[in-house]
Amino acid sequence: MDVKPRLPRGRQFFANPGPTNIPDSILHAVAHVTVDFNDPAFLAVYDRCVAGLKRVLRTEQSVFMYTGSGHAAWEASMVNLFSPGDTLLVIESGYFSENWARMAQDLGLVVRSVAADWRRGAEIGAVEAALAADAAHEIKAVCAVHNETATGMVLPLPAIRAAMDAAGHPALLLADTISSLGSLDFRMDEWGVDVAVGGSQKGLMLPTGMSFTGVSARAMAAHATSRLPKSYFNWTNMLARRHRSFVGTVPTSLFYGLEESLRLIEEEGLEQVFARHARLAEAVRRCVRHWSGNDGPQLFCLSPDRYSDSVTAILLPEGHDAERVRRIALEAFNVSLGGGLGRLGGKVFRIGHLGDLNEPMILGTLASVEMALRLAGVPHNPGGVAAAMDWLAEAAGQG
Amino acid sequence: MDVKPRLPRGRQFFANPGPTNIPDSILHAVAHVTVDFNDPAFLAVYDRCVAGLKRVLRTEQSVFMYTGSGHAAWEASMVNLFSPGDTLLVIESGYFSENWARMAQDLGLVVRSVAADWRRGAEIGAVEAALAADAAHEIKAVCAVHNETATGMVLPLPAIRAAMDAAGHPALLLADTISSLGSLDFRMDEWGVDVAVGGSQKGLMLPTGMSFTGVSARAMAAHATSRLPKSYFNWTNMLARRHRSFVGTVPTSLFYGLEESLRLIEEEGLEQVFARHARLAEAVRRCVRHWSGNDGPQLFCLSPDRYSDSVTAILLPEGHDAERVRRIALEAFNVSLGGGLGRLGGKVFRIGHLGDLNEPMILGTLASVEMALRLAGVPHNPGGVAAAMDWLAEAAGQG
Amino acid sequence: MDVKPRLPRGRQFFANPGPTNIPDSILHAVAHVTVDFNDPAFLAVYDRCVAGLKRVLRTEQSVFMYTGSGHAAWEASMVNLFSPGDTLLVIESGYFSENWARMAQDLGLVVRSVAADWRRGAEIGAVEAALAADAAHEIKAVCAVHNETATGMVLPLPAIRAAMDAAGHPALLLADTISSLGSLDFRMDEWGVDVAVGGSQKGLMLPTGMSFTGVSARAMAAHATSRLPKSYFNWTNMLARRHRSFVGTVPTSLFYGLEESLRLIEEEGLEQVFARHARLAEAVRRCVRHWSGNDGPQLFCLSPDRYSDSVTAILLPEGHDAERVRRIALEAFNVSLGGGLGRLGGKVFRIGHLGDLNEPMILGTLASVEMALRLAGVPHNPGGVAAAMDWLAEAAGQG
Amino acid sequence: MDVKPRLPRGRQFFANPGPTNIPDSILHAVAHVTVDFNDPAFLAVYDRCVAGLKRVLRTEQSVFMYTGSGHAAWEASMVNLFSPGDTLLVIESGYFSENWARMAQDLGLVVRSVAADWRRGAEIGAVEAALAADAAHEIKAVCAVHNETATGMVLPLPAIRAAMDAAGHPALLLADTISSLGSLDFRMDEWGVDVAVGGSQKGLMLPTGMSFTGVSARAMAAHATSRLPKSYFNWTNMLARRHRSFVGTVPTSLFYGLEESLRLIEEEGLEQVFARHARLAEAVRRCVRHWSGNDGPQLFCLSPDRYSDSVTAILLPEGHDAERVRRIALEAFNVSLGGGLGRLGGKVFRIGHLGDLNEPMILGTLASVEMALRLAGVPHNPGGVAAAMDWLAEAAGQG
Questions:
Q1: What ipTM, to 2 d.p.?
Q2: Residue contact B10–A399, C-beta within 8 A
Q3: Which of B220, D52, D96, D379 is the 20 to 30 A CA-CA neighbour of C209?
Q4: What is the pTM of this model?
Q5: Which residue of D has its CA nearest to A66?
């Protein structure tokens, strides 16, 4: 069926998996007049934000922040820890583990991979085996994407730490928490994560522009001997500054936003934030599973214990174009969906369900997707929205 | 089933029939620094707004504006036209026609009513009969609520004007367009309306605070002899000012908002704005009609040719409390519905579908209402949302 | 000298005496999404605002609020208290006392005036004499503009109350506090004021759109027997509503702003707010007095004990046009000054120094005015700004 | 004299040399809801911004943008052009040339310096001599800070290009335009600049968070052979993307702001923007020169032909603490001044006069500084503000 684009009206339903919806109160906080980043009044805000960020990361160790996107924090984690030719073990998860590996190679590091089926996720046993095989301890770090945004799958970080310990391997554990932090349970210190990479624009519900790394004492020791060239991201440079983060100008606006973000998160409570994400994610999955009947779209992730509660990738039946579904959703209904990344381009679309989200937002999105499937001629079992509603009504009934 | 309130998260779905959702670009325009209302730069904005407001009213006659709500414009229409003891013919439509009549009585006017069943609407024949019976032409004006916000029903103004003409009666025609202007077709000059009462906070998508009246040349003539005391609302006072509206300070902020509102409306085109309202309203009605089977909730309005495209009132089955449904929608799903007004309190709830609205917004709302009906134990035929989706997908398919 | 207009750049210095500068935090609070004015979450904000407004008014009696400008609150004070033909004693102060009197006459009331020289202010003895002469107690109310915005002069309300008491006259005392409340000391209950008329757009630093009246128990008793027609402003109608204010829609946006305004005022403390106004006002006066030498501009107000701390009117020497000075300040320096009102048009310009103001704002304004005087060829003793700086530096030195 | 801090009220006068004042319309544009950076509607905004940025840079060659601060763009310019051990010739200008050199060394480059007196600026002859002496053409690039923010001095880039040409040296010319672009005349192509480093937060009047480099064809050729490790800043990576800039998420919010920034700049006209900066800067200098009499504060820059029109550094007389002056200005008058950087700490303070600025803003600042000098007991010739006013009035009189 041909669908004529309409002038967008009403609020856009932003169902990309990131950046995410920004609550109005954060938008207004970010729209702050310029201040001196050394002004005592700003420093009080700043210090509160750093303390709050540590609570969200669940760490009492160090945090370094960057004016940059999530990729900046990735790069910071590497140039601060490693020397040219160092070896990393990257656990394959999807597009973002590939990108992280490519960045490491760009920077002159050697990458070994734990290969994985993107629909099932890496086997922990394979991680342990790879480490056990590295008797010389050439591997300096294990890189794990906590929540693979491209596929909607979680890696169980505690199991990976357990595998590292079981192998008696001294490598550092680096976790990309960009699309999990503030949405899914994450505990840097308790789980033995050495570097946690995060950004402003996902669970923290801020605009893109600030990213950060939680850094363990062990990682700080590794930093002392790293020889990759670095300046903008250099932790040692940062420690010499009042802010103990940032080289150059501090993006003050985002800290006013972060202060409000932390207020919202802690008002709700981290546990309740996670529970809300789990509830809405389950609604999406029930909807998709309903559609699946009769060769319809399927959940891309085939490992139920690794479903992501912040993003769901949906695989279209062979011969159908996910980009067409996305275009119809956008042009006819003002709903913005995520596309397939890398080798998944055109094959999947993705629904982000993280950040400032509630039932009618997710149901309005699912209803629009169901209509877009119909208009795109993608076979599916109608009634997915009703399945999602059954679940959400039941969940509401249980308080 | 007991529903535990949740901390509101995500954007509230505001499905009250007014005030309405304010687009971000209007919110930001309204957040304007203070300016001198006589500053030439502001006067240019002001003059453009007045011209645009006339285009929306479809009038080339006068417009007067007030710092005030819609009730202010009602009062302005009366104190500027009438003298103590004058008689008005109010066509009963619901809560707002009652209120208008009561205001007239408060101000010392005499009210005759054309009685009507609130679910079916007044008969045009009865209007004509009332006028024909007034051989002495005591009736100075016919008061018609174009769109009765409390019941979701439209009065056909051209038919009323035709009835007045048929009766050869010289009364003025006053129309309350508060919840129709900018949402439903309205043509002041073509339809022979003498005074059109409107407000900022509905189809114009602005905050509450500014209201206005379109005024015909005939109404200006009546104004010249009116003796009700007036000052704040006095048109003659206004004509002596540069702004030819307002007594006292001009609410400059709202004009920056109005400029953006008019830009949005005219970018889309009034006809397309009306078509969008009609499309979304029909989705609501198909949903409610689906629920209705087996003693479920019903459309309050029983006259299909008078369905309102800006608000729908839904009557609960006997013994069920509409306020409970509203409370659950608000507390569990962050959806704000309109309640029953006056004698309809507890019996109906209302869904506003006017202003800056699109498909996922209305579907997210309907889905939440369907869940709230379930949680409140109100009998209904599940699947109303699917019926709405059928319609909206079909409409999108037709471009 | 000819001055070519420039495109305005930088922030406009808004030195009109009202509306006033709105702090960013209030602008952002006002840019609130629409809410249901009966929503419990809003009602909590609303109730806090009403309580805070009473603290600013220093009353424990009633407050009624209106969607409207200050003139709406004036009209409300009259239609709620009086009956056709009732007599008011208006103390002449300037343009606004004239306007108030004219409004009373528009509404069918009889006005007696205590005449006054606008540059010196009314004599309290004349007020007492007028009351003493009214043995029949025909005068129902004394109307006093606490701070005459057109001339920059204050009326000592406690002295007026004392005069009323001395005369043993039962009239009500109505005070227009529009440009004094939140800027100058005002104590409704302690000073025996029966109705205090105020608006959002001055000391409360909000956009225009909400006004209010504090109402004493004695005034409520008078209301019970008043016979002027009223509906939109009717206190009795209001008392029947949950909000005990407003007829029709509540302007919710402004209440989010008012909540922030009250927070700012009470964070600083009312006494400190008044002290800041007094300090900045004295800087303006010292500047003008310095200019005055050799037939320069003069303070319009000739009674030092009645200087207004929220606005200063400056009288130009004969033969010089105040509007030209204003135009140059606006076009060359982006400084907006107040003009002369009514019979003072062209003769005076006014500097508002109320609301959210500090030293560099007032000094930037005064410097621009001094340059504008020069460019307009108005004789003056240069160095007024230095005189203001002497004072402000001394004041800062004393903490 | 002891100065008691006051609670800040009124708008802060932000007279730091950067970040700069952000106009309200830009703040509101930046407060944009999240969008997909691949959404066609966003891409249209993005492409317009890139074209506009090129007009401001006066280049038709390449532009690469980074989520990062100005230091990120510095780093990008180095890692994209050079290989380990490459030599740069850094022209000493002050704190920022030192920092740039230090960053180069951090990244493994070799730095030669053209030493200079910070108060007089480098001699062009010394630049030419250094290049002429480099017969082997070991110097890969000349690094020049166009406007040294720490001292308020400009380097004449055309003269440097002429010196390079005169020496027949093939080195690239890298210019830091962070505090000049959009404030001072700069012409990348005409002046033969190979890399121009700029940031969002100065003349473009945006929040900190986006920086960029204009890149010549010659620089692109050098890029092709550079071997410093790079990923986040890698131009080749960027060219493979639709946006031809950014690795990772695009900071969409800032582009809505940039669109408005470009609109403001081009509405005024670049030449008029520069003229405004020159006019206001001259006012500051005349004020400071007036203060200087009798061992008062002096202009730090001793070379009048190199005065910066975007920032002025002011040297306090021996034995006086610039930080105390800054603290008093902040705490007593809510004026934020820049401090002395590096070896100038405590010796100078700086007034930024760039971006969205006008006469009353600069005069309010100067008046506050003069009061702060007095309160801090710093000797000075009072009347600097009057000297600034004389100049500004004269300039206004000339249209």
A1: 0.96
A2: no
A3: B220
A4: 0.97
A5: D68
